[in-house]
Amino acid sequence: MTDKKPTIADKWQDQARVLSEALPFMRRYAGQTVVIKYGGHAMGDQEMANLFARDVVLLRQVGGNPVVVHGGGPQIGAMLKKLGVESQFIDGLRVTDKETASVAEMVLSGAINKELVSWITQAG
Question: pTM value?
Fold first, then answer.
């Protein structure tokens, strides 16, 4: 086994292969709205976030209309814990009282939305 580092040509060939495989789908769904769920658990890795943003921009550039719907459960949970607010769960769903809803809005609108917009703006 060799640990040969991929060359720029290898990377371009990989990207060309992926794009050629995706082209029929891009044509089929051009002009369509595509809903993308970006979960809170997926938001922890900056490199993956940059790739996500790049893919959203690419989808728009090839004629799609991406709509991003994001989560933020882990981030909300962390903020609730930091503020000393007890989370209650029933059947795996967070019980959202007035205080919890206020914190969730702060995290989702005040932090996550702005961060996602920033990543997408920087990507394209």
Answer: 0.72
